[in-house]
């Protein structure tokens, strides 16, 4: 068994105690997965306690996401118990003491990631650990499918595919976070799907191929469903992508000395002329003119 070399991906060590007086088995595999750490476990009923004292002192704060394939998980953390049935997922903080009880034979997949990569606050993380997100939840369903794919095919995928799948898992954790922060209703309708699409777009603005199809695939919905989510919004999905790209372009024009061509490529425009034309349509100035005006008209600034 090869453990991840990245300190951000070192899984928390656990102590397990079998709960039945019968022949015991415990099958476990652990490996690094696109910058995350993953464990797959199958076992007889058992009680598992985290050994936090063995976590390297310099390891960043981490969270775990667990998908219960079969059996049941009871998560005990902070004096509260959360029951997660087969098909459910739960997100929890691994920097605080926790304990699992699996009262039946079970199969589970656990993925650990740095808390900073998800943007989850401590307060929201505490709430997440108190409620499982079942496969009937839109966000939970997305995360569940991704974890199933990671567990079943992760080791067979190429490096680029593993990286893409790990990024999608982090995106899905953000969706679950939004769902719970909104009292469990945010992602249940069009507004939640539109918000999830905005999250995906922000993360992948540098992808020249970013489109409704790409975002729909990330969210595991049809393109038609995705477009329908924006019918009550102030902008279409295409307008959203263009606005986000131009916002980031303005930030870079004002805050860096990067050439216009480099900025264009960093936000997904392979054709700098197209970028300049799009920018001018919105601002009535070319990117270079806009930069000079924002900087008080001093100097010519970098050229495209």
From TrEMBL:
Superkingdom of the source species: Bacteria
InterPro entries according to UniProt: AraC-bd_2, AraC_XylS_family_regulators, Homeodomain-like_sf, HTH_AraC, HTH_AraC-typ_CS
A GO molecular function held by the record: sequence-specific DNA binding
HTH araC/xylS-type domain location: 195-293
Keyword field: DNA-binding, Transcription, Transcription regulation
Keyword Transcription belongs to the record: yes
Pfam families: AraC_binding_2, HTH_18
SMART domains: HTH_ARAC
PROSITE patterns: HTH_ARAC_FAMILY_1, HTH_ARAC_FAMILY_2
Keyword rRNA-binding set for record: no
Name this polypeptide is given: Transcriptional regulator, AraC family
Species this chain originates from: Herbiconiux ginsengi
Phylogenetic classification of the source organism: Bacteria, Bacillati, Actinomycetota, Actinomycetes, Micrococcales
